[in-house]
Amino acid sequence: MRVPISWLREYVDVAPDATAEDVLASFVSVGFEEEDIHRFEIAGPVVVGQVLSIEPEPQKNGKTINWCQVDVGPEHGGVRGIVCGAHNFVVGDKVVVSLPGAVLPGPFPISARKTYGHVSDGMIASARELGLGDEHDGIIVLSTLGLDPEIGADAIALLHLDDFAVDVNVTPDRGYAFSLRGLAREYSHATGADFRDPADRDFSELQPGSGFEIDVDDQAPIRGAVGATEFVARVVRDVDPSRPTPPWMIARLSLAGMRSLGVLIDITNYVMLELGNPIHGYDLDRLQGGILVRRARTGERMTTLDGQERVLHVEDLLITDGSGPIGLAGVMGGGTTEMSDETRNVLIEAATFDPVTIARTARRHKLPSEASKRFERGVDPLIPFVAARRVADLMVELAGGTLTDEGGALFAEVEIAGIDVPHGFTQGVIGVDYSDDEIVSALEMIGAEVAESDGGWFVIPPSWRRDLTDKWTLVEEVARIHGLDRIPSVLPTPPSGRGYTALQLGRKRVADALAAAGFVETPSFPFTSQEQNDLHASARGAHLPSIRLANALDGQAPFLRRSLVPGLLQTAHRNISRGLVDLALFEVGSVFAPEEGVVYGTDVVPPLGERPSDETLAELRSSIPPQPRLVSALLTGSITARQPGRAAEHVELSDALDAVRVISVAAGVDIDVSQTQRAALHPGRAGALSVAGEEVGYVGELHPQVSADADLPGRAYVLELDLDRVLTLAGGRVVAESLSTFPAATQDVSLVVGAGVPASDVRAALVDGAGELLESVRLVDDYRGEGLGDGQKSLTFALRFRASDRTLTAAEATEAKLAGVAVAAERFGAGIRD
């Protein structure tokens, strides 16, 4: 909401030397956020001049310019020659002249310059050039604004271009602050300055008269709320719409973000900004009969002021007359009864509409307006009578109209529920030792009625504060009025021994280790399709139960994910489409794994403000599916980029296995790999990952069709582990082993086995047979070819032996190696290759 400072001064005392920054600081102190400062950005000599002569000069381009002699007063150089392209003025008119040295909005510096064969010593300004509006049909002729200033007078002050506005952010719960009335009151709270309420008028002069029929027929109220509870109509006759809007009003509307549209419309907009109650004016002579407020009928249409024909919904609230709809209530008026240059008699409407109805209509028709913005946040139900009379008075004053006794009113009893505030409650919530006088004075300052009651106070909030609904909201007002800086900053003392759980620490270690290994963490949305769930979460692509969202953001991905791989594929596709083709991505996140036959969801809604019972918490927990946390990674492109003297190294399956080893070290477990098959992975290039004999995930190359469907240009490798299960099997903390000070004994062994025997099984046999002296075993070669029989392969393992208490001899290492070979021979018929 923009607040012109001159307007603010009408309702509250603002220090004469207060800057825009000072005013914003005052609003911030009572809970508003500062947005911006708006000025006309005009500087230098801008003065009143009188046209002495006009010489039209046709140009070769078909345009006619005027060579003018303009008197700007002796103090500004007397008569100046100025070239002007406008034609809406005559000799003798007084105009606004920007002299050399002036700077207009843009910025647009003015200087004497040669143009059309003359030296133009200044510029005669239009409204748009001064920042007063978008109209550029001609220059400003001051007599059309009702002004007759002296030649040479300061035009900046004359047109109120020296004003400025501060812009504050108004949150949705404080709709009363979308008005000068509301913000002036808040400025008074911040500074202690006297507030003058523009709505403080004798109710007897606000009566609208009679003779105009008004009725509400709401047969389909939303949530039981009637669409319109108040509707005030007044009639002003014999207005002159050609009269100029006064400069002070144009300047204030411009600073408030609204352009001048003619005196009648300007008045209604002005009062809306002033009092916060949107106003609509009808051309009375175009109305047919009285006013009926009702809901739209099926298939009904109307044309709004923006010229758009709209198909109405049965929940839309309409203003109608004998001809049908003439306005979308609280949103926008209709084109058939709008005020125009021919309007002579005006019906003024000020009403109170149901906020939900207005909000839904504005969103349904994608028609946000200044009116709907206020109605959907709630308008003071006591203000429509004041607003209607204020508009009528301004139309009499500025448009020459006559206020009649015609009109009508429909209103309901305004009931505001009282709130009990116990003694000590405010101090307990805020943590500040407020006195009783401070609490009462703060509540009365915001306009509430406060009365003593047993054990506290009975408070009736003001009619314009729809956000004050309970004792907690009243407590917030006390804190706000007396300064949020009084609230102490006290950090809570954490219970001793608390911190990250073992699972949380394990997740952080795994994520940090992958990031340190060169992977980039890319969290993704947890939504996917049923097909993706079946493909990536099931070994054979069988159908798995999934949770479908009732209000999915994307109709093509309405299910909660069971795997992280679909999200990584989308991320990879997005990066590759932008030229980033060498990717190593990972994600640690939850998936949703519902159990077959279990129905999830509950109707239990625990009350606010108190801890739910253990039974309620148990029911809530059972209403959601298990959500294990997984870790997944994807690699594609090159693991090492091409560089001088070295070709690019493309990602291989071994790189994905290295990522598995990184996870195993960070988690503190040994992860075994065995061959498997999965629907999403390439046959023969898929491995099952196991810990202590329990399968916990998989690794492998994506099936070529899956890669193609994801628009990946080359081979891609993925892995996925149930991280929570891995960390549980790890048994908690990871304890680093002491480093032996004795040297290691290394030996290699090549074993010939059947080609179908997994290398991991042979490795496990070596480990089981070699015993405690074996520190590590690593596969270094897989040979199949000359020298071996059909259906055989040679697996070479690098063995490292070490003892913690002595230096091993070669014989001891050889003995341990042969013990492992013996177990491999027993299990798989392995023999040492010659």
Automatic annotation (TrEMBL):
<feature type="domain" description="B5">
    <location>
        <begin position="414"/>
        <end position="489"/>
    </location>
</feature>
<keyword id="KW-0820">tRNA-binding</keyword>
<comment type="subunit">
    <text>Tetramer of two alpha and two beta subunits.</text>
</comment>
<dbReference type="GO" id="GO:0000049">
    <property type="term" value="F:tRNA binding"/>
</dbReference>
<dbReference type="InterPro" id="IPR005147">
    <property type="entry name" value="tRNA_synthase_B5-dom"/>
</dbReference>
<keyword id="KW-0547">Nucleotide-binding</keyword>
<dbReference type="InterPro" id="IPR045864">
    <property type="entry name" value="aa-tRNA-synth_II/BPL/LPL"/>
</dbReference>
<keyword id="KW-0479">Metal-binding</keyword>
<keyword id="KW-0030">Aminoacyl-tRNA synthetase</keyword>
<dbReference type="InterPro" id="IPR045060">
    <property type="entry name" value="Phe-tRNA-ligase_IIc_bsu"/>
</dbReference>
<dbReference type="GO" id="GO:0004826">
    <property type="term" value="F:phenylalanine-tRNA ligase activity"/>
</dbReference>
<dbReference type="InterPro" id="IPR005121">
    <property type="entry name" value="Fdx_antiC-bd"/>
</dbReference>
<dbReference type="Pfam" id="PF03484">
    <property type="entry name" value="B5"/>
</dbReference>
<dbReference type="InterPro" id="IPR004532">
    <property type="entry name" value="Phe-tRNA-ligase_IIc_bsu_bact"/>
</dbReference>
<keyword id="KW-0067">ATP-binding</keyword>
<feature type="binding site">
    <location>
        <position position="467"/>
    </location>
    <ligand>
        <name>Mg(2+)</name>
    </ligand>
</feature>
<dbReference type="InterPro" id="IPR033714">
    <property type="entry name" value="tRNA_bind_bactPheRS"/>
</dbReference>
<dbReference type="InterPro" id="IPR012340">
    <property type="entry name" value="NA-bd_OB-fold"/>
</dbReference>
<dbReference type="InterPro" id="IPR005146">
    <property type="entry name" value="B3/B4_tRNA-bd"/>
</dbReference>
<protein>
    <recommendedName>
        <fullName>Phenylalanine--tRNA ligase beta subunit</fullName>
        <ecNumber>6.1.1.20</ecNumber>
    </recommendedName>
</protein>
<feature type="binding site">
    <location>
        <position position="476"/>
    </location>
    <ligand>
        <name>Mg(2+)</name>
    </ligand>
</feature>
<keyword id="KW-0436">Ligase</keyword>
<keyword id="KW-0648">Protein biosynthesis</keyword>
<dbReference type="GO" id="GO:0006432">
    <property type="term" value="P:phenylalanyl-tRNA aminoacylation"/>
</dbReference>
<dbReference type="InterPro" id="IPR041616">
    <property type="entry name" value="PheRS_beta_core"/>
</dbReference>
<dbReference type="Pfam" id="PF17759">
    <property type="entry name" value="tRNA_synthFbeta"/>
</dbReference>
<dbReference type="InterPro" id="IPR036690">
    <property type="entry name" value="Fdx_antiC-bd_sf"/>
</dbReference>
<dbReference type="InterPro" id="IPR009061">
    <property type="entry name" value="DNA-bd_dom_put_sf"/>
</dbReference>
<feature type="domain" description="TRNA-binding">
    <location>
        <begin position="40"/>
        <end position="156"/>
    </location>
</feature>
<dbReference type="GO" id="GO:0005524">
    <property type="term" value="F:ATP binding"/>
</dbReference>
<dbReference type="InterPro" id="IPR020825">
    <property type="entry name" value="Phe-tRNA_synthase-like_B3/B4"/>
</dbReference>
<feature type="domain" description="FDX-ACB">
    <location>
        <begin position="740"/>
        <end position="833"/>
    </location>
</feature>
<feature type="binding site">
    <location>
        <position position="477"/>
    </location>
    <ligand>
        <name>Mg(2+)</name>
    </ligand>
</feature>
<dbReference type="GO" id="GO:0000287">
    <property type="term" value="F:magnesium ion binding"/>
</dbReference>
<keyword id="KW-0694">RNA-binding</keyword>
<dbReference type="Pfam" id="PF03483">
    <property type="entry name" value="B3_4"/>
</dbReference>
<dbReference type="Pfam" id="PF03147">
    <property type="entry name" value="FDX-ACB"/>
</dbReference>
<dbReference type="Pfam" id="PF01588">
    <property type="entry name" value="tRNA_bind"/>
</dbReference>
<dbReference type="InterPro" id="IPR002547">
    <property type="entry name" value="tRNA-bd_dom"/>
</dbReference>
<keyword id="KW-0460">Magnesium</keyword>
<dbReference type="GO" id="GO:0009328">
    <property type="term" value="C:phenylalanine-tRNA ligase complex"/>
</dbReference>
<comment type="similarity">
    <text>Belongs to the phenylalanyl-tRNA synthetase beta subunit family. Type 1 subfamily.</text>
</comment>
